[in-house]
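Lab meeting tomorrow. Look over both lines:
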Amino acid sequence: MAQLRYHGMLGRVPILDPTALYRLRDSIYAADFLIAAVTEFDLFTWLSQRGWVKVADMAVELGLTARPLDVLLTYCAALGLVDRDIAGDRVHITELARQHLVAGSAYDLRAYYGSLAERPAVAELVHVLRTDEQAAWASSHGHDDWSGRLSDVDFARSITAAMDARSAFLGPALAHAISDIPVSALLDIGGSSGSYARAIIESRPNAKASVFERAPVDAAARTLLRESGWDKRISVVTGDMFADPLPSGHDAHLYSQVLHDWAAEQVEHLLASSYAALPAGGWLIDHDTHLNADKRGPLPVAEYSVLLMHSTRGKCWSTAELAEMAERVGFVDVSHRTTVCDRGVLLARKP
């Protein structure tokens, strides 16, 4: 049974911890990813024939592309199937994998995994591993990638509803985690309906916020804010975060579960855009599922990264990767705080 928690920012009533429910949904593609590694690439037999292996050499020999291979190795490290040396960019098989996922072992489980190799998601993940081309959102047929589908009003509405559903619990926890950060004007970039912006400024009566969103999500956001009575404190600015400069006049920028949808060059572009638009002393707030700096876990985040790799251009970024990018564009005082449901917030300040 889930542990009983009291979520102070929600007030009123104790609520049950929904972490297991978040993990169940977010890990939906993870088992298929291991099946793909075992059945299509016989990854662990290959590793067992070598010592420490450079990741770049592995990519060449097995015909794998960099982003999905990185996600795979993070997931395998979190499962205890490989040891990972980030500094040397190399991996080594563990005894657990050697005993149970290698040809010739008395306890070889490869055939057990092979009995599920025909699952459709396995083929999709094999394709992503080989090409780095994202699959359709939720494995739907005949559709563009999730980002392209946002121009479809019905799809945009469903994604907005999904983001709002998780923000009811995650938003107050985020607000509590950054309650000491001074915020008077918040820009919620890619913020959908502004649910996280609402949570942050609710306890700051003099603060206002703006949501920066592209059409048609911007129209949905305006409607939802008006219906909820928040339109007086939260405005909506229409724009493309990759094509347009971010608006000035905000002392904090929020990316809530946005950066994990994008590749490294796009993430760094967004961080640089925030740095350019923020005033001196302004804060960058990245609320997301973050991997540990050594990219060995946590396991629930490594599992969620598989879903993101499958359907978006991104993955779950490690705290070290994000800190490096933030510092490269000029931010200082980078730190990380945990919240709830395997989420956390990475903070950085413009000097």
User: Anything to note?
Assistant: Confidence is low (pLDDT under 50) at residues 1-11. The first helix runs from residue 19 to 26. The chain is about 45% helix and 15% strand. The first strand starts at residue 4 and ends at 5.
